[in-house]
Design a protein that fits this description.
Shape of chain A: elongated
CATH superfamily of the largest domain in chain A: NAD(P)-binding Rossmann-like Domain
Largest sheet of chain A: 6 strands, parallel
Distance between the termini of chain A: 28 Å
Oligomer: homotetramer
Radius of gyration of chain A: 20 Å
Strand content of chain A: 25-35%
Structural class of chain A: alpha/beta
Number of strands of chain A: 11
Strand order of the largest sheet of chain A: 2-1-3-4-5-11
């Protein structure tokens, strides 16, 4: 890899992809060598000398795109969803045959959101109570958000690791369900408000103190520092990394 | 009424009552002339020359206490619950016979909580979306809190008065109830955390903006400024006033 | 005025003006009959039959624009700055000669921001302590923001009206100025953060309780409901109204 | 050390000390064997068979207390202030002669506050902007708080470690100092409000996103989980540990 990282973006005309194109073009240590749409041939990536392929396409295409990248000596940074255990296992097998190649698959490129989940899980080991509130625009179809449910599971796992049970709750009467969803023993509340985008707050409480960690995402552009971090790091991390937190220095 | 207001506190050994005793004793413009427990005779109030009787007893005793006060020419400030429409009607009738006497019955003496409800209702006429979050200690038995449900109803009434319907909500999938309770078309969420006391936040959203109003009650002492305001004002407000907001200058 | 309000926008190519053009076009009860840029002749407004002129131009032009509107029988809604007392006095004089005509001059059309200021002033009469925090993007040149300074002055005036002095403060050592600016005896703090737009929070405290009122403005579009409210109301409010709060129902 | 940890509390009649006595008495895995006031002889600690000495006294006494503990084979958990580098160096020398003995000196036992500082420093490496707001009761004499200044320095050090400079700030006009104190290139704001105790919020911003971390301390009891963690851990950590974060599992 030369000093300047040569980058090919797949899914370049999508919402995330078009932001990634702009971000790569603005980064002084990167060069955009290819921007592919859905009909374009994958050989335009290695053909242009790409070091790193950024896959922001659709679940049906992502596995083949990554396979192509790995087999042609390119690292891959992947933001496409749909990577189940079977796909991940096949990818791990492929990477064993290409030991110098790195792949990052990140369900969430917002560094702030990833840090929020990590901090919440760490803190929840030391606090008696913890709940999650997510807030989104009112056009969202599902509740709670995938990010909030993921955070709840990270918290539950961290608490189990130190022998902590569920948060205390003496509620006897809640006829209308004000206490919200319970995901892996953690209460999760979903607020919908016009004007909001995507927000998550974790509330932790103990005798005499409270700790609150909140992430506000106002714009898709908030994912780009994470994408650029992935592009810069993936070449030094052979094998599969699942989750952007693997690239963050949390000490 | 002389310059210094002579005050009798009923229920003086209870949690609210003992705080009220301290607050009256500390107020320079008041004199505590009687502090009655549950077995004490009511004639110790007018016997001591009280101008105002503060009733912080129990639902079973409150109506008789207030009747005694009115019939003996004393104003009354009442924080006891259980005043239903039948009791209120009887009291209104009694006050017509005593046109110079004032009674304040206030379900909530925390000025901040009362202002929060009023502000939220006013603002909700101008915002597309509104939801209520209440947060309490984990020993609370019911959800949502009475205050939050009351706020939701105030909001709903204010919105109906200007022809606003429910807040927009596209949720199609919410299998675990993360969207919380719906009180009079307003979503209400209840959080329980060790270390908290009683807190309420109203979130309002519209295109490009959000308005948040939050009240935190850390201690029972937060009710005392409202009690003192009631004692100072009740003598100038003949008849029945229901709710502390009737004594607040909201302009 | 017919059922549909005919609107002319002055300064239609500016940032606020272009948003206003879109908002008027989207309102079912309005018709955009003229959109003027800086070189356009004012007779295109009454020439097109406008009921209401919206002035979103520059201080040097605004007074003449409003004079033209009033003299030609059109109401005016004005968001341009620079209206000092001399200009306002001349306008009041002119409106006396045109008793059926209304003018609204509003320094801030964000209903949420206006409500925030009003609520803060009202509440500050009942709380011992109050401070203001404003938060903006880091490209802002001045601190504190004009809105925050205005809020501080509204609060100070409200407190004086009930005989309340400054908030208590025992600070003896503050070598680096952490306590922020003091505007009319009210502490004002200015935060600058990448990713923010324009935000204001008023914090009120008393024994055992806190009240927080926060307004977040994420986008210029947040001013449009206020502009539309002005257009709809100005025809029923002859004379000069200064400040959007004059059109809000705060009860 | 047996299954139950035998604990001696020094400074047992002070504010922190009396809370520690209660906390140790309530802990099932501990036994309070001695509670010493200022006049009591130190030999009542090893005389009672203490495993761990908790020093919550005054700067003038703390060094001698800890020396006594180490020389008599007891571990020490120290919350007293005033440990400068000279004292720490002498203690390190002493501990080399007692290689099995552990001492924890913690300026802050509130686990939430310690986590807040750590999280803020970590996150500040990934965000363009960061500022600190601390909020306290109005009787506090100095601003900013020591905790906030410490957090600012931790943040500045973390940012320097990754080559990040100060947060962006275009402010040209700030005649009254609304931008607050600047501690090691980090802006720190101090709010004073009746009803508050001790609170700290770190605000981080980047394009399109914000991360907020807030710690609220309502009561001295919030320090006790940290004291108990120290008592439980100090026996397994020979040598000197400075700062409770050395005992926290931050992964």
């Amino acid at each position: 890899m030369t000093d300047v990282i040569k980058v090919a973006v797949l899914g370049a005309s999508g919402r995330m992809g078009s932001e990634a194109v702009k971000a790569v073009e603005s980064a002084e240590d990167m060069e955009l060598v290819a921007a592919l749409g859905s009909g374009d041939s994958l050989d335009r990536t290695d053909g242009a000398g790409a070091d790193v392929v950024v896959d922001l396409t659709v679940p049906a295409a992502s596995e083949e795109n990554v396979r192509y990248a790995v087999e042609h000596g390119m690292h891959a940074v992947v933001g496409t969803t749909g990577w189940d255990e079977a796909k991940l296992d096949r990818l791990r097998g492929l990477l064993e045959e290409h030991p110098g190649t790195g792949v990052l698959i990140a369900p969430n490129f917002a560094i702030g959101a990833v840090l929020t989940g990590k901090f919440a899980a760490t803190a929840s080991k030391y606090f008696e109570s913890v709940e999650v509130v997510e807030l989104h625009h009112p056009n969202k179809l599902d509740a709670p958000s995938g990010t909030a449910a993921h955070t709840a599971r990270e918290i539950a796992e961290a608490r189990r690791s130190v022998g902590r049970g569920p948060s205390p709750d003496a509620t006897e009467s809640d006829p209308q369900g004000a206490r919200g969803a319970v995901v892996d023993d953690v209460h999760v509340h979903a607020v919908r408000l016009r004007g909001l985008v995507a927000h998550e707050e974790i509330l932790l409480g103990d005798e005499g103190q409270q700790l609150s960690i909140r992430h506000d995402s106002f714009d898709r552009v908030s994912f780009m520092p994470g994408v650029l971090l992935g592009i810069r790091t993936v070449g030094q991390r052979p094998g599969l990394t699942h989750g952007l937190d693997g690239y963050l220095d949390l000490d």
